[in-house]
């Protein structure tokens, strides 16, 4: 995807399997939202091929669109509507595309319960809080019981309870409905909690692809062992944490505050982006350090 001479995306190659939850991570401006918009059919790519559910999204028909759900970062509606009225109205567009085993739409009352808006069902949208509006955004995205769901920052602006509810809903859609989910987020804990696979996008290209554990092993095969002894704190990087700890305990039986720390998703993500921005840079090797 290019705007004039500025290339936003270049060679973004990916496959997402049915029922998979894939998270797209990347710094601001990396092209995450543009990637989703191409896959949703809102933008036509400058070059390349795109297929979602077997069709080119930019040219797909209404039957295809009935199988796709989209939760945008934000959207506008009429402040005098109510959640129930909005969902019932939108749901009517999906009814002609119901198929055996996948009736459409989801009943409005059931949907309101799923997203935690049953008490606000008949309030005007203009009176809802920001978090309640975000819950409604999610409800709009799944009213048609989509086969594929795109989530762009789905929990932005939600409190911890709201984030938990959305996470539970995503798990429910995948486990019970077989929904395929592609999401973007800046919340790395959310990405790790939800995703089967993570794609790291930097500079308009996918620079990493794998499960959170696989990416962590790729970035840092070593673990960090921390311990205290004689009032001093020590830290050591090792490829064999179990073997090192056994040797440590055999040599010093009075070790305290023993901790083995593996690379977190945040460590992994930052290292992936650093490698892209500073190719060839190698982190310094570390031996045993005394931390006072």
From TrEMBL:
<dbReference type="InterPro" id="IPR003439">
    <property type="entry name" value="ABC_transporter-like_ATP-bd"/>
</dbReference>
<dbReference type="InterPro" id="IPR003593">
    <property type="entry name" value="AAA+_ATPase"/>
</dbReference>
<keyword id="KW-0067">ATP-binding</keyword>
<keyword id="KW-0046">Antibiotic resistance</keyword>
<dbReference type="GO" id="GO:0005886">
    <property type="term" value="C:plasma membrane"/>
</dbReference>
<feature type="domain" description="ABC transporter">
    <location>
        <begin position="1"/>
        <end position="228"/>
    </location>
</feature>
<dbReference type="InterPro" id="IPR050763">
    <property type="entry name" value="ABC_transporter_ATP-binding"/>
</dbReference>
<dbReference type="GO" id="GO:0005524">
    <property type="term" value="F:ATP binding"/>
</dbReference>
<keyword id="KW-0547">Nucleotide-binding</keyword>
<dbReference type="GO" id="GO:0046677">
    <property type="term" value="P:response to antibiotic"/>
</dbReference>
<keyword id="KW-0813">Transport</keyword>
<dbReference type="Pfam" id="PF00005">
    <property type="entry name" value="ABC_tran"/>
</dbReference>
<dbReference type="InterPro" id="IPR017871">
    <property type="entry name" value="ABC_transporter-like_CS"/>
</dbReference>
<dbReference type="GO" id="GO:0016887">
    <property type="term" value="F:ATP hydrolysis activity"/>
</dbReference>
<protein>
    <submittedName>
        <fullName>ABC transporter ATP-binding protein</fullName>
    </submittedName>
</protein>
<dbReference type="InterPro" id="IPR027417">
    <property type="entry name" value="P-loop_NTPase"/>
</dbReference>
């Amino acid at each position: 995807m290019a705007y004039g001479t500025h290339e936003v995306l270049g060679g973004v190659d990916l496959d997402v399997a049915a029922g998979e939850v894939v998270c797209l991570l990347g710094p601001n401006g990396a092209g995450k939202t543009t990637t989703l918009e191409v896959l949703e059919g809102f933008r036509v790519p400058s070059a390349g091929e795109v297929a979602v559910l077997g069709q080119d999204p930019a040219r797909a028909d209404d039957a295809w669109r009935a199988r796709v759900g989209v939760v945008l970062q934000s959207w506008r509606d009429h402040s005098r509507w109510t959640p129930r009225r909005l969902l019932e109205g939108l749901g009517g567009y999906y009814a002609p595309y119901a198929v055996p085993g996948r009736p459409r739409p989801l009943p409005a009352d059931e949907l309101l319960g799923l997203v935690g808006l049953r008490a606000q069902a008949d309030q005007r949208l203009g009176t809802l809080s920001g978090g309640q509006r975000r819950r409604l955004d999610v409800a709009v995205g799944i009213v048609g019981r989509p086969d594929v769901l795109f989530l762009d920052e789905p929990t932005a602006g939600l409190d911890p309870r709201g984030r938990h509810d959305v996470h539970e809903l995503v798990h429910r859609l995948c486990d019970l409905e077989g929904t395929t989910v592609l999401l973007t987020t800046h919340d790395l804990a959310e990405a790790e909690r939800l995703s089967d696979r993570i794609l790291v996008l930097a500079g308009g290209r996918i620079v990493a692809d794998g499960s959170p554990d696989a990416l962590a092993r790729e970035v840092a095969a070593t673990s960090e062992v921390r311990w205290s002894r004689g009032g001093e704190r020590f830290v050591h990087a090792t490829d064999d944490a179990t073997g090192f700890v056994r040797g440590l305990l055999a040599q010093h039986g009075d070790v305290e505050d023993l901790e083995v720390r593996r690379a977190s998703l945040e460590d992994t993500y930052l290292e992936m982006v650093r490698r892209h921005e500073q190719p060839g840079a190698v982190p310094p090797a570390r031996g045993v350090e005394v931390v006072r």
